[in-house]
Design a protein that fits this description.
CATH class: Alpha Beta
Number of helices: 3
CATH superfamily: Aminohydrolase, N-terminal nucleophile (Ntn) domain
Helix content: 25-40%
Strand order of the largest sheet: 3-4-5-6-7
Strand content: 25-35%
Number of domains: 1
Low-confidence stretches: none
CATH architecture: 4-Layer Sandwich
Number of strands: 7
CATH topology: Glutamine Phosphoribosylpyrophosphate, subunit 1, domain 1
Structural class: alpha+beta
Order of helices and strands: HEEEEHHEEE
Largest sheet: 5 strands, antiparallel
Distance between the termini: 45 Å
Radius of gyration: 17 Å
């Protein structure tokens, strides 16, 4: 990567060649992260991550798979502290929806909320884009759903089986 010459100070500043270095740094962080995969079968979904244990890490405790609600799980690849922030936001969104509307939040609604938040962090000064990609999996009304969220706010819906 070429020297940024001060154009990497904020995600709202373009370099003369039209690049946004903060977004490129976030994408590179995900590329250097561990692998996360999601599998879907007729009767369930499986999310898995590659864990590289460190000396002080407790064995048997995953730090890259999170539970948002009883029916939604998230696998993360990239910078895990950013993933924790997004998962906490997803939990708050899901719980708020449950308290307000007295019904569970859909997988797609949580994925869209996280995509909107992630995209906002590429548009304002004083923040940086999240350096994490998420696989969001769950069950909505007995329909298995997958969504893939990459760090600049793009959301993709993956195959849905009934």
């Amino acid at each position: 990567m070429m020297a940024s010459r001060g154009y990497d100070m904020t995600p709202t500043m373009y370099s003369p060649d039209g690049r946004i270095y903060q977004v490129e740094y976030a994408i590179e962080t995900v590329k250097r992260g561990a692998i996360a995969i999601g599998l879907q079968a007729k009767d369930g979904v499986v999310i898995a991550v590659e864990e590289k244990s460190r000396d002080l890490q407790v064995e048997g405790i995953t730090q890259k798979i999170f539970q948002v609600d009883e029916h939604i799980g998230i696998a993360a690849a990239g910078y895990i502290p950013d993933a924790r922030i997004m998962v906490d936001n997803a939990r708050f969104f899901s719980q708020s929806n449950k308290l307000t509307y007295d019904e569970v939040t859909g997988v797609e609604a949580v994925a869209k909320h996280l995509a909107d938040q992630s995209h906002q962090f590429t548009q304002y000064s004083g923040v940086r884009p999240f350096g994490v990609a998420l696989i969001i999996a769950g069950v909505d009304k007995l329909v298995l759903k997958f969504s893939l969220l990459i760090q600049v706010g793009h959301m993709f819906h993956i195959l849905q089986l009934q």
